[in-house]
Amino acid sequence: MIEKIKQILAEVPALSVENEAQLEELRLKYLSKKGLVNQLMADFRNVAADQKREVGMRINELKDALQNRFKDLKAQLATGEEDHSGLDLTRTPYPISLGTRHPLSIVTKEIIDIFSRLGFSLADGPEVEDDWHVFGSMNFADDHPARDMQDTFFIESHPDVILRTHTSSVQSRVMETTQPPIRVICPGRVYRNEAISARAHCFFHQVEGLYIDKDVSFTDLKQVLLTFAREMFGADTRIRLRPSYFPFTEPSAEMDISCNICGDKGCSFCKHTGWVEILGCGMVDPAVLEANGIDSSVYKGYAFGMGVERITNLKYQVKDLRMFSENDIRFLDQFMAAH
Ligand code: DAH
Predict the structure, then answer these.
(1) Can you say whether the dihedral through the CA atoms of 307, 308, 314, 319 is positive or negative?
(2) Count of C-beta atoms within a 10 Å radius of residue 286
(3) Euclidean distance between CA atoms 233 and 270, whole angstroms
(4) Average pLDDT, the chain
(5) pTM to 2 decimals?
(6) Is the terminal CB of the chain with fewer CB neighbours within 10 Å at N or C?
């Protein structure tokens, strides 16, 4: 019986009414002749002698609480004001949980920080681009396979409007408005028409770098990239450059770093080679300088472009690319300590 009384008592502060009729209902239910309090009083007869004292006290307590609440509610109805007496305004309404930075943002910021220390400033350009900035100005031949419908998202009604497939388009955007010296890095999202799987996505992120000045050499490029790799992955990191081909650079190379997951012993991430590719780079093709209004007989430049997801995978070993865009709190919370 004590439990039952306690339970009713606990409900009293929450009792509320909106009009006189409900107030009367409440009175009938609890305080009238046949109401709950009187029923309890009637049951009191059957309470064991040694419990009578406590039960009696509890019933009186409940009766007082109900009568007070009834009075308050009646007064409230009369003045039309809400009752805030039970409110603790100093209490936190719900536990405050701080958000985390997205792992791709953490890594992008780290890349930007490293290159800003090397004298690069930030530049950006639109994700919805035109064919000229993504391909034409970057020396892609008209029949280059990257222009193919397989790779590029086109807007059906506007064949010239595309989603940029790489951040190299920002190189062109910068060159057409700025004369050298140019030292920029351009982070951003890019799109490719790929089936989504653990290893590919239809959008991902790149950071592009562009350096143009009078005496720029491949050695400068190599030194900057080595410094970047060591700042990003640790002082023991080694790099290797393999000859490659990109339409906008000549010569072109791809850069590998020593696998920091297995410490070059060989693992599935580096396919047991001890090396992982992280970026493409090269000396800006004179044709690109000319197409973008820069005199190639005076200026030279280097450029590079890296995938942010790939670098993030190397740092945090994320196995499935889809995790980056699913907004799963269990995944994101793991980066709480990383920023
Ligand atoms: N745009 C290339 C890609 O998306 C990456 C790249 C390679 C950028 C070489 C560069 C570069 O600036 O010099 O695969």
Answers:
(1) negative
(2) 17
(3) 15
(4) 92
(5) 0.73
(6) C
DSSP string of 246-314?
ETTEEEEEEEEEE-TTTTTS--TTTTTSSEEEEEEEEEEPHHHHHHTT--TTT-EEEEEEEEHHHHHHH
Question: Cβ < 6 Å from ligand 1: which residues?
Answer: 166, 168, 208, 246, 249, 280-282, 303-305
Residues composing the chain: 339
CA 133, 174, 295, 255 torsion-angle sign: negative
pLDDT digits (tens, 9 = 90+) for 59-72: 999 999 999 999 98
Residue with CA at minimum distance from ligand 1 atom 2: 305
Residue closest via CA to ligand 1's atom 5 equals 305
- Cα gap 8→2, rounded to integer Å: 10
Asked whether the CA dihedral 167, 172, 177, 182 is positive or negative, the reply is: positive
Query: Is it true that the peptide bond before 95 is cis, omega within 30 degrees of 0?
Result: no
